[in-house]
Amino acid sequence: MRMSMTGMPALEVKLRSMSEKRWDRVANKNLTEMFNRAARPPGTPIGKNTKRHKSGELLRSRRLKKVNSSKDVITGNFGYIKDYAPHVEYGHRIVRNGKQVGYANGTKYLFNNVKKQREIYRQDMLNELRR
Known about the structure:
Elements: H1 8-19, H2 23-39, H3 57-60, E1 62-70, E2 73-80, H4 85-90, E3 91-96, E4 99-105, H5 109-130
Antiparallel strand pairs: 1-2, 3-4
Organism: Streptococcus pyogenes
Protein name: Antigen C
């Protein structure tokens, strides 16, 4: 029995080019876009300036860690380091004199940012795959 394969050099070239894709570049681009979008309205909410609270602290607490790829694992992140960031995102109780007087709804600022970026990221990955 004999078997012959044609087109192997073309397949090798295609596989080699696929292994040279720059997935980290795509991920960094998308993380940076999310970071920059958070700085523009209606990105990160900015509270009122008071004696006890300086406005814009949440905005200044944005952090971006660029992608680090090792052993086929790509890691990178964007987020906020302020301790009250989850309370602004998801909502919180309003307490005065030990009693709950209301509830502040979450603004979903990070969720909305990720939602906007999701389709852009998908398109960027498809474009990189087509290269």
